[in-house]
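Ticket #4471: structure export looks truncated?
Reporter: QA, pipeline team
Priority: medium

Steps to reproduce: submit the single chain below to the structure queue and open the exported record.
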Amino acid sequence: MLQREGYVLVREASEILGVCPNTVRAWGAGGKIPEFRHPLNNYRLYKRADLERVLKQLERSASTASKGAGWKRAK
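Actual output as written to the record:
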C-alpha cells in the first residue's frame, strides 16, 4: 500500500541514494531528507520524489566538484 503512495523504507531509500541505511537515517534525523513515520509500526518512511530530488542534488554537487578537480590550491 505504501509503495503505491510513493513511500519507501530505509533499505530501499539507501539503494536509491547509493548510501548505507545508517546514512539515510542520519540524513532523515538531521532534516536533509524529509522523514515520515508509519502510523502503525513507527517505521521510517521516505517519499520517492524527495529521494530523487536529493539524488539530483548529489549528482550536481559531484559534477561541479569534478570540474574543479584539476585545480591545485595556492600555498
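Status: closed, not a bug. The export was complete when the record was re-opened. Leaving a note from the reviewer for reference: Residues 23 and 50 are 15 Å apart (CA to CA).
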